[in-house]
Design brief:
The chain is built from 15 helices and 17 strands. The chain has 465 residues and is of the alpha+beta class. The chain folds into 2 domains: 387 residues, Creatine Kinase, Chain A, domain 2 (2-Layer Sandwich), CATH 3.30.590.20; 54 residues, no CATH class. A hairpin with a 4-residue loop joins strand 16 and strand 17. It is globular.
Length: 465
């Protein structure tokens, strides 16, 4: 176990042993959808639009899949990257970290109109939604490379581990669910307190930021405004609850976090250029095994083959936790729970997280003393689920919740002011949502109930201003 501890330390904790910066990293996953109602994304059109974009913006560091299609292009001068996440139905813009969120936003506002124009000329568009509006029609085909082919194969193997209600029947959810992710630097002293505070914040974030409405049907719990939560937790990624979602324990130290990571499961590795998939098992069990039986995709045969290999502590490199607050190998805390937002509000989550991180003790104190949601017999995970429903729980006083949301935003605004980059106006959409006790998912469903088309909502959520 000493070797495992050393491997975890090298990957996750050594990067924390340096002075943190105020840099913010932003990743936006944007659904690509065909404007023709009921029609799937035309991947050839997406490839052509990508080529148009790259003729305007030089992203020279590129990668192509097994079929020769470009799925990633990066600009080394900025660290900005255009990629496709899991499939060509989702376009991701990942930005090199900046101290100023407004600097990142300015680059986005150059890229996004060019992408919309290139896609629009081919009958497609981007939108700011957590669920692709054409998810039912789109071809559920992963990017043709080892990693994504392995991932979808893994998720589709859920039937081996039992059926409903443990698992939903959408193993291809990674091809149509979209997030807005933020990364902030942390260090040895702030990592555990930040995870604890932001874990407690999750129910309030659901109230403000839900944007993936999804109906799981009567047997699956009905509607969720944060459908992404359930798509992850009730997939094979959630086979081990420690691998995704929220923390069920408070972390007292980095030692606690290291112990937690040892209980998360690994399900993939690489040997001899082969992406291997096997039954998920906790790291602490994995490293004790003599041999692991796995399978890989044989490109020449066009079929999966069996492969046996010896596990190693170095396979920590393949650990894929998907926690809402995820410690990374870059010395950052990655926030993964936010659905992609309407494009005009795309940088509100980054501002919220950066502002609150700058005032972390104040946030922790506010949440420790909260009575708007806490103190009614429910923990953070249960409250996140309750706040993802279409109606507030009976025990929640709307006025108390509204006031607490504004207190949270007050702390974020103070934190942004201390950063000194003029970022506070980015919180304005969240102020309006707090006033109305609404979010993009509730607004979306209300518009559908009023007779508006889903395509009209998608067009609005894809508008830059």
């Amino acid at each position: 176990m000493a070797a495992l501890a050393a491997a975890l330390d090298a990957r996750f904790f050594a990067p924390l042993r340096r002075a943190p910066t105020r840099r913010v990293g932003v990743e936006l996953e944007l659904p690509v959808y065909r404007l023709e109602a009921g029609a799937p994304t035309d991947f050839a059109a997406v490839h052509a639009a990508t080529a148009d974009f790259l003729s305007r913006f030089r992203f020279p560091d590129t990668a192509r899949d097994d079929a020769g299609a470009l799925y990633r292009a990066r600009d080394p001068s900025t660290g900005d990257e255009l990629s496709f996440d899991c499939s060509f139905n989702t376009l991701e813009l990942s930005f090199g970290p900046d101290e100023s969120i407004l600097a990142t936003k300015a680059r986005f506002e150059r890229y996004y109109p060019a992408l919309q124009a290139a896609l629009g000329a081919r009958g497609h568009a981007l939108t700011g939604m957590g669920i692709n509006p054409r998810w039912r029609e789109n071809v559920p085909e992963p990017i043709q490379n080892g990693r994504y082919r392995m991932l979808l194969h893994h998720l589709k193997s859920y039937a081996k581990y039992g059926g409903a209600p443990r698992f939903h029947d959408h193993p291809d959810f990674g091809l149509f669910s979209c997030a807005s992710q933020v990364q902030l630097d942390v260090d040895e002293t702030t990592a555990a307190p930040a995870i604890n505070a932001f874990n407690a914040l999750e129910p309030f974030k659901a109230a403000l930021l839900a944007n993936s409405p999804f109906d799981f049907g009567p047997s699956g719990g009905g509607w969720s405004l944060c459908g992404r939560d359930r798509l992850w937790s009730r997939s094979l990624h959630g086979f081990n609850p420690h691998n995704c979602g929220m923390y069920g324990v408070a972390l007292r130290s980095l030692a606690d976090l290291a112990g937690y990571l040892e209980t998360t499961s690994v399900y993939c590795a690489e040997r001899d250029g082969k992406y291997l998939n096997f039954a998920p098992m906790p790291l602490c069990e994995y490293v004790r095994r003599g041999r692991i039986d796995a399978e890989y995709w044989d490109r020449e045969a066009g079929a999966h083959r069996q492969f046996s290999f010896a596990p190693s502590p170095a396979d920590v490199a393949w650990l894929r936790p998907f926690k809402f607050e995820d410690i990374t190998a870059r010395g950052t805390l990655e926030f993964r729970s936010v659905c992609e937002q309407p494009v005009r509000d795309a940088f509100a989550p980054a501002a919220l997280h950066a502002g609150l991180m700058a005032e972390l003790p104040a946030l922790a104190t506010l949440l420790a003393e909260d009575t708007a949601l806490y103190g009614h017999g429910f923990g953070p995970g249960e409250l996140r689920e309750l706040m993802s429903r279409r109606s507030l729980p009976a025990f929640v006083d709307p006025d108390a919740l509204r006031a607490q949301l504004h207190r949270i935003l007050d702390i974020a605004e103070r934190g942004l002011a201390s950063r000194g980059f003029g970022e506070a106006p980015l919180l304005a959409p969240l102020r309006r949502r707090a006033d109305a006790l609404s979010n993009p998912a509730l607004d979306h469903l209300a518009r559908l109930d009023a007779g508006e088309s889903s395509d009209s909502v998608a067009a609005d959520y894809g508008a830059l201003d």
